[in-house]
Amino acid sequence: MSGFRVGVSDGVVVSRPTADAFTRSNYLSAVAAGVDSFWVPDHLNSLFPRTLWNPKNSGAAKLAPSIDAVMEPWTMLGHLAARNRVGRLRLGIGVTDSGRRNPAVTAQAAATLHLLTKGRAILGIGTGEREGNEPYGVDWSKPVARFEEAMATIRALWDSKGELVNRDSPFFPLRNALFDLPPYRGTWPQIWIAAHGPRMLRAVGRYADAYFPAFPHRPADYKQRLDLIRDAASNAGRDPGDILPAVELFVIAGRTRDDVDAALESPLVRSFGLSIADEHFARHGAQHPLGKGFSGAQDILPQQFDEQSALEHAACVPVSLLKEVLVTGTPDDIVDQVAERRDCGVRYAVLANITPLQTSLRKGLAASGPFLKALRKLKKL
């Protein structure tokens, strides 16, 4: 099938010898692979337990001082746009919080990047997670309602044409607010929304240019949710075909399947499963180590785990579950698994290579080869 597009996501964690060494290397690899876009997340800290970030559990800890040393995303994208004159990839936030950042500031940041990059900015946005909000004094009691109001605020400011804006809102009221940044050649950044629950899926149908979930799920789950989004778009008077079906996929790559299986047994990689909701554990005859019904990434507070607790929790994550929700294997395996998602409606896949989190630094770095090979093959889907 022609027209399938591919992006690469980077964790923007401070590294050695320079703070952006990992990110710049991944950006140049993305350019070399011929992908369409480059993405960075918006986190104040990691979703992985910080107590597992040591050379004993992850070889990459030898190259990065802290897994929680996450750099500010809009600054990083501006830096990449200014420093790299080759490739001209589209640049996206995957994704920003609708609560922690005031939507007027988000609207300004995205519009600025769009102007400076001549129309290459993408605003990925969602409710965010508890770990990036509650510890910093942001109310986490109504994240979806806050998200809906943030989206309405951003659209109101972008559509204001420089006129004063007044809008009632329980979260973000506007009182003679002014937004006078111009669109780039009549266009604002595309809005890609990360969503899973029914109410958020309806919001995608109303507001989004693309559906962009990032939490792990099966291909069949994606197809079901995409159908709900298209119904919501129709109900909102929109053409469902105007919403691009995209997805962020986390990848464990290797030259052989044995290398991949070894990586999946690593404590930090296993701990990725703590960000998967309990409903997925049940299919594998297990229960989430943080309790029945635990929602995963939305509510996890990984900075609170001591090392022993983190190791015990990670050991409870079935490897079979990781293989279900991650994209794993050799380059051909990766292509086959992404193609399965394409057959369920995905037209744009953004891949994040988390293989370097494994115990072996050598194998983690060597996995960049198979990952790059997979990216090149995916461009031909």
UniProtKB/TrEMBL annotation:
<keyword id="KW-0560">Oxidoreductase</keyword>
<feature type="domain" description="Luciferase-like">
    <location>
        <begin position="32"/>
        <end position="347"/>
    </location>
</feature>
<protein>
    <recommendedName>
        <fullName>Luciferase-like domain-containing protein</fullName>
    </recommendedName>
</protein>
<dbReference type="InterPro" id="IPR011251">
    <property type="entry name" value="Luciferase-like_dom"/>
</dbReference>
<dbReference type="InterPro" id="IPR050564">
    <property type="entry name" value="F420-G6PD/mer"/>
</dbReference>
<dbReference type="Pfam" id="PF00296">
    <property type="entry name" value="Bac_luciferase"/>
</dbReference>
<dbReference type="InterPro" id="IPR036661">
    <property type="entry name" value="Luciferase-like_sf"/>
</dbReference>
<dbReference type="GO" id="GO:0016705">
    <property type="term" value="F:oxidoreductase activity, acting on paired donors, with incorporation or reduction of molecular oxygen"/>
</dbReference>
